[in-house]
Write a sequence for this structure.
């Protein structure tokens, strides 16, 4: 999942770290000439080396002798410049602080923006991530924790978490609302609505909830049978009418069945449709009015990238959306839709579909997704 984005982010992180490392060394050494003469000094080495050794390696400006030549004939009193210089190094090393200028990270920020855009992250989301990185890393003196790479990782993690938002726990929602909880699944043709409903039914059964499915796709030939086959496999009751029947009536019956049988959750399927088909969108608005869902879940394919983000926005404007399900994340190397959609439409992702099996569904937990993207252990 999201392999292309993961590897590109690793590269960009490296560039941020190198630029910041340079800033650190420049600050420690005082001028660039000294750095080029002491290429073995890296921030890592600085952190791990006692400050006396570092001050012995870096020559202050205007000092000509090399530490290697330091012999018994060296004056016992160090020169004034050297004392001041080593004190500065000591304080910097002790507190691990560095001043990072905006100019210094302009290059890596541009790299980051390109990587995100290439991986289908929406422009406004790219701007938000990049802006947060700039704010976090630059400006006043920055305290470095354990390492520069950790500092960059933390900034990237916070920026990604910002755009992913809080996520949405279906279990928490069900536990805190009256039953039956009614969930309407909407979306374009072939996005994975019917399969997702079967997966969610299996997931909820596993979690101890009772479920009924309303087969609200009365439009496509074979849709009823497809839903029935899935439901039989996961052991869940389906309420269905004839092909061509009014989907609102089917879903109304599903709710009546749930009430009569003390069912916890009603999952309502709908026919796939595109937002620009006015008659079908009007039908969806009617379904919404009659079924009166607690949650409208917009389903789209993660692999559709930016298209999924645009469609999600259009569905949200037309009939409303509460949460998003992104299917086929297993086939998505870019991750753009997963990163952008919540930020763009202001609705959380509820699940990721990760395969064609009934257990291939994971609740979307922003922290876990970001850890995976950043390659945490
Ligand atoms: N790899 C993968 N395939 C999936 C996933 N979810 C659904 N699919 C496949 O996508 C195809 C379409 O799934 P459906 O559930 O029929 O999609 P739909 O949105 O109900 O389609 P319509 O009813 O025609 O609008 C099927 O072949 C599914 O097996 C997923 O998470 N990963
Ligand atoms: Mg379907």
């Amino acid at each position: 999942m999201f392999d292309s984005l993961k590897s590109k982010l690793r590269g960009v992180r490296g560039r941020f770290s190198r630029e910041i490392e340079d800033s650190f060394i420049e600050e420690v050494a005082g001028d660039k000439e000294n750095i080029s003469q002491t290429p073995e000094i890296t921030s890592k080495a600085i952190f791990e080396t006692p400050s006396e050794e570092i001050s012995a390696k870096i020559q202050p400006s205007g000092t000509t002798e090399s530490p290697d030549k330091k012999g018994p004939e060296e004056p016992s009193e160090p020169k004034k410049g050297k004392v001041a210089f080593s004190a500065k190094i000591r304080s910097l090393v002790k507190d691990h602080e560095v001043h990072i200028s905006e100019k210094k990270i302009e290059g890596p920020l541009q790299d980051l923006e390109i990587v995100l855009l290439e991986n289908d992250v929406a422009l406004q989301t790219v701007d938000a991530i990049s802006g947060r990185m700039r704010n976090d890393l630059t400006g006043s003196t920055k305290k470095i924790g354990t390492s520069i790479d950790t500092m960059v990782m933390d900034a990237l993690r916070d920026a990604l978490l910002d755009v992913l938002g809080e996520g949405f726990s279906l279990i928490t929602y069900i536990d805190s609302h009256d039953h039956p909880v009614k969930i309407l699944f909407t979306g374009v043709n072939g996005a994975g609505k019917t399969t997702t409903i079967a997966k969610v039914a299996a997931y909820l059964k596993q979690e101890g909830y009772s479920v009924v499915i309303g087969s609200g796709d009365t439009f496509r030939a074979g849709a009823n049978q497809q839903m029935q086959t899935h439901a039989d496999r996961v052991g869940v009751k389906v309420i269905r009418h004839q092909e061509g029947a009014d989907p609102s009536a089917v879903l109304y019956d599903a709710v009546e069945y749930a009430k009569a049988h003390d069912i916890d959750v009603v999952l309502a399927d709908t026919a796939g449709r595109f937002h620009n088909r006015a008659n079908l969108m009007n039908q969806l608005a009617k379904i919404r009015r009659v079924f009166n869902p607690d949650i409208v879940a917009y389903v789209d394919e993660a692999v559709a990238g930016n298209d999924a983000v645009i469609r999600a926005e259009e569905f949200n404007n037309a009939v409303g959306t509460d949460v998003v399900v992104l299917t086929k994340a297993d086939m998505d190397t870019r991750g753009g839709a997963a990163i952008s959609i919540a930020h763009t439409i202001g609705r959380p992702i509820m699940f990721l579909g990760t395969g064609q099996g009934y257990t291939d569904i994971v609740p979307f937990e922003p922290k876990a997704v970001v850890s995976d993207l950043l390659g945490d252990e």
